[in-house]
Amino acid sequence: MNGSVTTVIIDILTGKFEIPAEEVSQGVVFEDLAVDSLALLEISLILEKRLGVSIVEGVLTAQQTIDEAAQAVEVLGAAAVTPPAAA
Asked: Residue 54: is its pLDDT beyond 60?
């Protein structure tokens, strides 16, 4: 799933935020793209709609790389589909 989450984040950055594609890669830090906390909140909301996961504030940070953010979202998605342990 990580590859697809990374692709979705890159699509959001290049489409919605109009960041040139040549500036966006898996290893780039959001802060280096001038993506602030408000933009990260908007990205979180878009990801929630597209991927069907709930992302609480603070999961995505300006100090993360795109790949780190994708991994964090992937963990949330995996937790959402993992059945709870039997008590």
From this structure: yes
